[in-house]
Amino acid sequence: AKQKMEIRLPAQRRATAGHVAVLAVLLPLCCRAAPELLRYAIPEEMGSGSVVGPLARDLGLSLADLPTRKLRTVSGDEKRYFALGEDDGSLRVKERIDREEICGNMSPCALSLEVVTENPFNIFHVSVTIEDINDNAPQFGREFVDLEIMESTPPGTRFPLASGRDPDVGTNSLQNYHLTPNPLFSLVVKESPDGKKQAELLLEKQLDRENKKNHHLVLTAVDGGNPVKSGTVQIRINVTDANDNPPAFTKEMYKVRLEENLAEGSLAFQVKATDSDEGTNAEIIYSFSDIGDRARELLSLDPRTGDVKITGPLDFEEARYYEVTVEAKDGGGLSSHAKVHIDILDVNDNPPTLSFLPIMNPIPEDSAPGTVVAVINVRDRDSADNGEVSCSIDSDLPFRLVSASKNSYKLVTQNYLDREKDSHYKITITASDRGSPSLSSRTALSLSVSDVNDNAPVFEEAAYSAYVSENNAAGAAVLRVRARDADAGANGRVSYWLVGGSAGEAVASAAAAPYVSVEARSGTLYAQRSFDYEQCREFAVEVRAQDGGSPSRSSTATVRVFVLDLNDNAPHVLWPTAATPGSPGSSSVVSGPFEVVPRSAEAGYLVSKVVAVDADSGRNAWLSYELVQATEPALFRVALHSGEVRTARAVSERDAARQRLVVAVKDHGQPALSATATLHVVLAESLQEALPALSERAAGAESPSDLQFYLVLALALLCALFVLSVALAVAARLRRA
């Protein structure tokens, strides 16, 4: 459905004159469409700020809609003549409009412009017709017209007079001529095919030079305006003696076609007249009898040859034709006239001009295809094919041009944009006309793509592994995870969290909760406490990387932490019992139960087995056994890896009944840790035989208090020796000094 709207203003502007709107609605259906074309008409010379028409209301926009719809004009040269009222959205005159300056003698005179609205985007075409007012009086190109007429000229002869010119059009243009009354002359007004009035002087009666040789007349040109305006020219007639034959042009009307931009000095055309007289009466002088001011600047006439040459730049865009009248006068004063109609032919001398209005810059990268980015206006002052313009852009861009009207295009998105791939576009728009050769012009539009949060952070690795030795310090860095976000600004600013908790509070699962935390900005994981391999050998946490967009996007990565074993546990003797483990580098003594070995035992007899375990793993838990002390060292041996205690030889009668064995259990850590076990062996054939030996052992055992005394005494002696050594060393240094 199309809708056309026309609003006209009266030709005679008054302060109280209103704007009358005539709405012509073409609706074959019952629905209503937005107006496609708005037409207004105003008189010329309206003052700045005058209302052309209620544009916003005619577009169906209320005052409340104006801020969101962003109504504005986007046309080219015509934009300087009009502006939009900020308060009511009406179209107003921006600066003085002179119809004659803009359109010359062309009628109607219309200025076209486009207005756009947003949310949703739409383009409306507005045509403002500039109506003529009678602001120009008819004028003649000169103050006096001099005619020489022979007294023998027969009545009925006509003499062309100077033509008046009025820049106004229609009824305001030149309508008629008046001549002061005179019995010898009268006025004849002829109308040319283009509607122009041509005044001619008609000789009514025979002239008599002897009676009166000079006559003075006044020719008045009047227009049809209200009030009527007029202009005058003085006609001075000099009556001369007889000259039988006036000059005769070869053509009564010369029609000339000239291309614009002819070089100055070029021959435009030639007029030719002949005279049948002889002598000075046959000598012809050519001159322009009626020529406009602009044509006088562009053309020069050789008075002898009738050659007309170009003296200024012809411009089709300035004037499409000129009309002049050439007079041929002989030496006797007789003259004749010929009209010359000069058509200016357009050549393709004006490249197209481009102007654009950015609608959305920068444009969000998630804009749907078809989103309007800018409106481009093209103008070409040439005509016909020379003024037909087409626009194009590079085909490898995600944009395309859509024709909005004859002289405007919309630049729209063709595909979805990706700021991470291209954040800036330089779009070169080429406008080419259809002239031969074709002229073109280019303009570049710089377009930025704004970021939206369409990318989630991506970890450098999907899963991380960290290896931490046990007994680490609390707060030590375990591992740093890193995620990158291709977005910009806050959308690309990544922070890190443990899944299910917050940065700085170690949470991930019930098993991992006490162990680690993550620093929100750097992604560094820190140990919350010292790890113990014997309690937890490995654990996993999930780290979430989250950007600062709205809504935010995130991704997760799994971090597995493996606790490495240190040799921090000494072997633990399970048999014989009552063993106390020592610290690293130390050992402990175990006083265990006794074993009875018959005296008839042969070599290899299994006496007992030392059983020990180590809470560490790997080499730190590999145990070896060694006999470090025995009453009869040659009597017993200990298996290196199994801890079995066997007789190394057969038991003899000479061997003591009571045997004391000390076995060391050592791991393979660095440093190695060890423990000792004491095994008491009684050589006897039976338990009854072994009881006396056990009683003696109990009686001869030293009391624990005596053993403790000896240990303290030995420690005191060692300390005294250390102090004495330090004192001697200090004294020696002092003596040297």
From TrEMBL:
Topology of this chain in the membrane: Single-pass type I membrane protein
SMART domains: CA (SM00112)
Entry keyword set: Calcium, Cell adhesion, Cell membrane, Glycoprotein, Membrane, Repeat, Signal, Transmembrane, Transmembrane helix
GO cellular component: plasma membrane
Domain Cadherin, residue spans: 34-140, 141-249, 250-354, 363-459, 460-573, 597-694
Annotated CDD domains: Cadherin_repeat (cd11304)
GO molecular function, one term: calcium ion binding
PANTHER family membership: CADHERIN-87A, PROTOCADHERIN GAMMA-B3-RELATED
Record's function text: Potential calcium-dependent cell-adhesion protein. May be involved in the establishment and maintenance of specific neuronal connections in the brain.
Name under which the protein is recorded: PCDGD protein
Source organism (scientific name): Crypturellus undulatus
